[in-house]
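Hi V.,

You were right to ask for the full record rather than a summary. Here it is.
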Amino acid sequence: MKRRDFLKFSTSTALAMGVGLYACAHKSEFKLAPVPDSKRLRIGIIGVGDRGNGILEVLRNVPEFKVVAICDIFDYRMDAAEKRIGNEVQRYKKYDQLLAHKPLDAVIIAVPLHLHHAIAMASLDCDLHIMCEKALAYSIQECQEIKIKAKGTNKLFQISYQYQLNPMFQTIRDLINNGYVGRITRIEALWDRNHNWRRKLPDASLVKGMDKSKLERIINWRMYQEYSGGLNAELGSHQFNMIDNLLGTHPIKVMGTGGVDYWQDGRDTFDNVHMLFDYPNGTKVGFHSGTTNKYEGFKLKIYGKKATVVSHNMSSAFIYPEDDSLDKNWKEEIDSVTGASIKIIDNDKKRNIKPVEKDMVYPSDNFMYNATWLLYKNFAAAINGEEELKLGIEDGYQSAIAVHMANKAVRQSEIVSWLPEYDV
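Predicted structure:
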């Protein structure tokens, strides 16, 4: 995916930006190129809960993969998964049984965080390509062990940070890399919801014989530190990953606060966190996530010497130049060089641009579905030697260390630094 696929305006146009950029929309002409069954990659998926079944829905539009095995502790989940797959599939209750399935080229790990390490290490022992949900693992030590072992194999290890493959993120990164935002001194990231983050327990008839308290901890594992890294791991991790990519480095220290201050329901992962990261060259990054107000939702605000970028939900973005004199670069409503439409939409001269698209066709109107689709298309292409892997173990490791630094800072009320031994 190259810059021209996302952004169709000239240097002079970009210099003048006070613009809104829109994510690429669904194309009615989307078609899947058939892949002979003999050339399809055989893949198994461990964990077919909400995320796992969402992945299976995406794989319906990635014919390079053939799902041949699924694993979950619950039959009702595997029943739902089988309906999405569309071909004969082998079911397993234990992950080691799935890993022994023959033939198998790759595995998807879509289980609670505390299980990632054991399954990833076993998958590496089985010489399989791996797609692992974020965050990489439950602790810094586990992350180190996975990275060291993965680097010693010739198999691919991709992390599910699909936001990086969103065309909107690619566009923002290009603007920054080409100097239009200037030196970045501050970033504010938010991911807020007005919901208890709790999942409804399945009907007792679907999980016969299981104690309700045990079932609660299995279904709502995100609520408990025994299994989860909480908001920093499940939500912040995505934004930490994007910010590291934009800045080209990792945080050097972090402080923060948070607590179980609203949802008094037995959880022990915090219902709000407020983090402040220090990056090299003095850049400060704030992250906030809460569960009692969704006004700003998912937002990324990037403050540079030349301009400010504000993206809401990675489905749209606006760029505000610091220098009003740049307005003189806009002469017409339609830019004659690029064909992009330009329109002043308020008294602040905020401009709305819809980039011209020619080469990329998407399967859906849902930009998050499309981003996950791009992730798996890249995974397949990289396994087949047709593309470089875009989100490998380095991405996943670095972002996971930031998660664990943040959690330590907020849980222990201390400033936590990136240590030399993290550079494995």
